[in-house]
Structure prediction request, 493 residues.
Amino acid sequence: MSVRVRYAPSPTGLQHIGGVRTALFNYFYAKAQGGDFLLRVEDTDRERYSEESLDDLYQTLNWLDVKWDEGPIVGGPYGPYIQSERFELYQKYAKMLVEKDMAYYCYCTPERLERVRKEQKESKSSVQGYDRHCSNLTKEQRDELEKQGIKPVIRLRVPLEGKTTFHDVLMGDITRKNKDVSPDPVLLKSDGFPTYHLANVVDDHLMGITHIMRAQEWIPSGPLHILLYKAFGWEPPVYCHLPMVMGKDGQKLSKRHGSTSVKDFREKGYLPEALMNYVTLVGWSYDDKSEFFSKEELEKIFDITKIHKAPGVFDYKKLDWFNGQYIRKLSDQELKEKVLPYLVKEGFVDEPITKEQDDILNKLIPCVKPRLKVLSDIVALSKFLFTEPEVAEKEMFVAKKMDLASSTTALIKAYDILKSGLDSDKPFEEIESEICDVAKEMEVKVNAVFTPLRVALTSSTVSLPMNDTVTLLGKEKCYKRIERAIEMLKGEI
Prediction:
């Protein structure tokens, strides 16, 4: 059996980490098995549908270099691959179930359904949901209702007795009593639009999908889908419900944990290789020691049986570490090209970049590479070099357990050593050592001396190593900035 899997998102929002992980698991499994990866757009929710979301879907997969074998744009033998273009199929198969008495027309108005819902809630009835009011209407009754202009929906006739079981690769057999399945759900709405359940099952069957990998939140829909497959007389695919993606607090990953859309991660400057590698490890592992995998390696080794049953934890700090490692692998020229858009956006460099700016960048890149977690970090780390910052607020010069007077003294002493050393071309290691001696002399921590010096030069408490900062700025700018800071601080004491 040739493996055929699909990623079938609804374009009602930006692609998020959970959805992308589902896409990656499907993609890598297909490639590892020599099968096909399909992209299908489930756009039947027209109220929430947006072109922006559809564009984001394509852009996200293209950014990750995940190419679908069949789907929108590329086509294929089972198209169209956009559900809104397949309406006639859904109507055909819904009516087929009616003819087999596996489904029926329902003429209940929204008002009646709401009334029934309220009555069930008030009476605390054990039966919740549709009361099957139209399940046994005669032809004469249906004709009369249609004469009144009521457009019916089509509902699945769910068995009242027995159980339904389906097998999940990770979870084993999952069984549910038929009476606990959603009672006679709508398959085709009165406007001809299919519900998710009908469209999903019909498309998976007609497109020859052999394995369905989707989030565990769809497990409750499993029995219903199996009943649909049985109603049609079709063989269901293999199911593998993927573990949830959680935050470190054990709750489902959401915006309260941080960014969840891939677009946000792209804009912050995560590399696609790093995000792909890390996300694939959220709920899957090859062994107990390997962490770094290229896309090509995952296309060969991905094994569905190595997916974890337990929820995967998305650790933002671990992702930062992964991304930093991938940044370090870039050549200086590659990194320069990737950070350039961030510098242009901030107005630090021109587009096209000038020769002078390019020379500065060529010196800057080797200095920032070891310190970048994401590409956008370049902005904060290089601002001091491309702008003439205002003198920082006095509070920024004061390290822990220091006051303004002692911090000013520390800055003056450090400046004297720095200026003397630079003017005499003394090795910077010796200059730094002498500045550290100031800390011993003042009986304070080394950071208490370097903090005011760093802030004087960059107007920030976070910067490159002192040697790099001084080298990139040049002596004259360093002297000017430090003297300006000392003058300001003296006026505040």
Summary: The chain is about 50% helix and 10% strand. Residues 418 and 432 are 8 Å apart (CA to CA).
